Amino acid sequence: MTQAPQTDDAPPRGTLAQQGNHQLARAGDFGFESPGADRRDLVTEAGVTTAIARTEAEIKASLLLACKYPRDENAAYERLIRSCGRPILAEKAAYRFPRGGSEISGPSVYLAREMARVWGNMRYGVRIVSETEDMIHITGYAFDLEANNYVEMEAHFKNLIYRKKGGWQRPDERDKRELINRHGAIAVRNAILQLMPPDIIETALDESAKTMEKAAAGELKQDRDSAIRSIVVAFGRFGVTAAMLAEYLEHDLTTVSAKELAGLREVWTAIRDGQSQVGEYFQSTTPKAAAPADGDKSPFDGIDV
Q1: What range defines the domain where residue 172 resides?
Q2: Number of domains in the chain
Q3: What's the rounded Cα separation, in Å, for the pair 294 and 300?
Q4: What is the distance, to the nearest Å, from the Cα of residue 55 to the centroid of all Cα atoms in its chain?
Q5: Quick check: pTM over 0.70?
Q6: Is residue 289 part of a domain?
Q7: Residues 19, 222: Cα–Cα separation, whole Å
């Protein structure tokens, strides 16, 4: 049987599979390895576009709500004072570390977040900018929606963690998450503090210090031995002994004052949050114990006035 000649408009001869191969070859002309890669790229691009659009919509909605419901600074101030009057927050409100022969203290991550919460109309968070085998680059940000002020604080740190056995090591997924959260929390804190009024920060620190001293005085009065044991156990997590605490105070622990006890809790917070190292306060030949994870409960929780 004689076959009809093929014209330019006719489809290529061959089986259906051959026609499919012909179509695949044409798709490859556009730089895609395969239709599967093409679809994956399109899905990824669509996901990124959707995420950007969603974030943009959330920010626009937040800006509109901030204009419609502006903050009451007097009410926010009263809420902050009440928060700083709670012992559980007050014991985590400040950090303290030595620098140049003197000690520096300031608002902690926890206090900064609480100030942002009660101040209202603020957004904050952490973004991972880049990550390589050796380094991680993140950005902590804070956005005052009402004042239209935006602050970013960057952090670059090694993609390593320290183990008592083995020294510096590559982190697993859980350790990497904690590493990023720890550095991210500090970056967010610094960004929030850039937006808060300085007098509000100072007032919050003063009120927290008063609450801590009052709580420590009540605890020492109620059961001095138990209060001293709790601080020794807390620092024991970092390899700090009772003798090292006494050397730091320059007197025996049995005579610790309420102000000193409150100060030791600020030191503990600074070490736990990665603001400082054990060796900056205490002389020791033993390795430092690992800091508790962010989800760990403070050994001082439950203190009552």
Answers
A1: 74-280
A2: 1
A3: 15
A4: 20
A5: no
A6: no
A7: 88
